[in-house]
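Hey, I'm writing a tutorial for new members on how sequence and structure tokens pair up, and I'd like a real worked example in the thread rather than a made-up one. If someone can provide the structure for the chain below, I'll link this post from the tutorial.
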Amino acid sequence: MKKRGIALAMSGLMVVSLLSACGKTNSTSTDSKNKGEATNKTITVSVQTGVGVQESWEAVAKAYEQKHSDVKIDIDLKAQEGYDQWVQTTFKTENPKADIVNINLAGNTKNGKSINYKDYIDNDSPYSDGTWGQQFDVSQQRIDGANGSFDALSLESVQVLWMYNQDIFDKVGVQPPKTWDEFIDVCNKISAAGYQPIAAAGNYDSFYSGQMGWLSQIYADQTTRSMVEKNRAQNGDFDFNADVDGKWKLDLNDPWNDDPGKVSQNPVRAFANVKNGIYRGDTDAMKAVWTNFSKVFPKFAGEDSFFGTDTNGAKTLFYQGKAAMTVDGGWGIVTFMKDMKALESGTEIKNTNGEAIQNVKKFTLGTFNMPSMQGNGFEAPARTIEVSNGFLGCISKDQVHNDLVIDFLMYYSSKEGKTVATNALLEAGGTINGPSLVYGVTYPDEVKHAFEQCKFIGNCQKDFNNLLARGIGESAETFRDFYQYSYDYLTGKISVDDWAKSHQKNIESHLTSAMEEKGVGESDLANPQNEPSSAKAKAK
């Protein structure tokens, strides 16, 4: 599926810049021959395990070894628990066995020890008709903002969207809404027909990192799209790129206009704008967002029971046909498909706690994108959280071995290789999060049909676009405060003006700690053109 736009990290993940041209060379296979044959022709894959992951990598390994009989692919997967400690220790080891790892959990131990894909991206690929970079969506890859390196390969897409019970929609006679006012109208009609319109979690975890946290970021983004003009790198700034920033102009009609590959944001300017009150959390537009939320939550999400509902409770309501809509990631489409198959075979469907969901009803699933809020202060149509994930990195060894590992990754990230990997994963009971970022991958018909409903609309989680959506920074204190005054507002204990005052106070109280998280010191704010005091400063 060759799409322009899935941009993903959920919360901590970001889509970053397009790769600059490296100069086209011959394939890595040819390069390796010029430098001599690899003495170690074993490639060890040590990523995190999961349902179907072993089978998926083994299928790719077998297919690759059939093409290269002298190469051995060793699949040595590691448990998810404690993987961060394992991978960091591995990068510190003098002669590590592992070659391919989940590098996003390596921290700074990877610095200077990982393969930079930028050195290979324009090489011809033996597994397609073009370069390696023409096999997958390079624009959605994560580039290190500090040094421009590209060492994390992400080939899966993730998108947050609305899922709905098509049978209920047909019975009530409503269509997927495109605006928030239409959304409220749909909720009213579904409620009048005797169904709960929305199944959503309303506990702290939801506001912190789940459905309500997602929605808070998505709709705050509608009000702050133009802030990039004030946060962007200016001519003379340490991160100003004349070839990119010198040509960029704001275009609110283009949801990808502010992608990091098109414009650089200066973290010091972003925080200075917060410090100086230019970028605030108590604007009329932010109050409009939460006024709109109050028209839906908790009224159409279970009234008072909404705040006592967790993710499993929301899924139960949706699966039982008691609620018509829910917010989920694209992975929910394939999960639903598998669960309905299990239901047909008489197998229990279980929640994340391993408990069986009782009285599940089979129904047709539909999806729609985020309906846009409209009115004063809303600058552009709603985007969503769209990110890429996978983060396959390679531990750098000698040049010839590096070339060999890259050759295997070229196959893995080709149409053929990724199709083999994906179908093996599904056959083994695994789940994929969304359409692959590798062009031309083929799926089973039912999965293909499910993903045909997905329309990419742009990512709201990049750089400093929604810096103030849930307070500021990543501390537990700021999220607890955010949940408490949001709870008070949605339950009618305080006004929206009081909510906004509390939100701005939360931001001001945690600004210094949020700056420290990004390596920006108080003294940096006076000279935003200079690189911040900590070399670790990175865009959000």
